[in-house]
Amino acid sequence: MTAESIAPVYERLFQIKLPLPIRPKGVQVYLFHNGDRSVLIDTGLSTEESLEVLHTSLREIGCSFADIAVTICTHYHPDHYGASRRIKQLSGCEVLLHKADSEYLFRTLLLNTNDYRKFLRSHGLPVNGTALMPPAIRVLRDYYLPVVPDKYIADGETLDFGDFSLQVIWTPGHTPGHVVLYWNETRIMIVGDHLLPDITPHVGIHTGLEGNPLDSYLDSLESLKGFEIAQVLPAHGPCFSDHQRRIKETFEHHEERQAAIVSRLDNSFATAYELALSLFDQSLPDLHKEVAAYEVLAHLELLKEKGKVQMHTRDGVNHFALQ
């Protein structure tokens, strides 16, 4: 590890890049260096490589694990919450997470193999010996060691840390309990995966997930338009300043995807998996095709609510057509 993993963002605020074993190849966590009351935003994976990079980065900043008093996780995904248990063991810190993510994570632990197989089959996805759990957990299960949160954080809550404070903004969609953190004094927003500079975050329907996640995501994205933001600090990709432009581009992306789905249905029935294969590169690995089908499902659910698409079930498999 070299100092290339560390980037100062603002006085006492640092970005630390941690490695990932799959795409994307890294995740950016953030540290408010505040003496023995330092605050860490997100954790990376629980791999020896990631923890060593974090340890060395902290040392170069002049901090240690023992100085971390609070770890705030923007959401439950492995690259953001996966090392929470190890970091709590090393630091004794409080770990904060939104209740909706904690509840969803617990609910998935109660699902069994048949639940996953039934869900996959119901949307036309091929079922094989590896399709037994959600993709992120299946791929990263050896590196995902979450801890029970010490405290749930809620929308609109202000977290005070001595001479600075962070406002919690609930931004469901990417996960049910995703949050972003706004440092009002500097107009800096730490956004996790909610708003990314070059790609759009995954928003999909998975086994055990209820509701309309894409509608929730677009609503929570809209809510950020009212904030004055000087700098957006994402978990992946470079920091950026024009959040209004990026929000507009993200809306346009989803409008184009919905139009493409409607076009492909054109008086025919199709499963979510068939639509995913027609929309995405068929040479993608099976895991990516599976994730693509979950994204298509989220779009179909939103189109159903708009009255543009209907669903019919035949032999336990859901097929979609234009209304």
Structure characterization notes:
The chain is of the alpha/beta class and 323 residues long. The protein has a single domain, classed as Ribonuclease Z/Hydroxyacylglutathione hydrolase-like (Metallo-beta-lactamase, Chain A). Helices cover 36% and strands 23% of the residues. The chain is built from ten helices and 14 strands. It has helices at residues 48-61, 78-81, 84-91, 99-109, 113-122, 135-140, 213-223, 243-265, 272-279, 286-305; strands at residues 6-10, 13-19, 26-32, 38-41, 68-72, 94-98, 151-153, 158-161, 164-170, 179-183, 188-192, 231-234, 309-314, 317-322. The strands form three sheets. It has a seven-stranded mixed sheet with strand order 1-2-3-4-5-6-7. Strands 8-9-10-11-12 form a five-stranded mixed sheet, with no helix packed on it. The protein has a two-stranded antiparallel ribbon with strand order 13-14. β2 and β3 (26-32) form a beta hairpin.
What secondary-structure arrangement, pairings included, does this model have?
Layout lengths: L5 E5 L2 E7 L6 E7 L5 E4 L6 H14 L6 E5 L5 H4 L2 H8 L2 E5 H11 L3 H10 L12 H6 L10 E3 L4 E4 L2 E7 L8 E5 L4 E5 L20 H11 L7 E4 L8 H23 L6 H8 L6 H20 L3 E6 L2 E6 L1
Parallel strand pairs: 4-5, 5-6, 6-7, 11-12
Antiparallel strand pairs: 1-2, 2-3, 3-4, 8-9, 9-10, 10-11, 13-14
Structure summary:
With 323 residues, this protein is of the alpha/beta class.
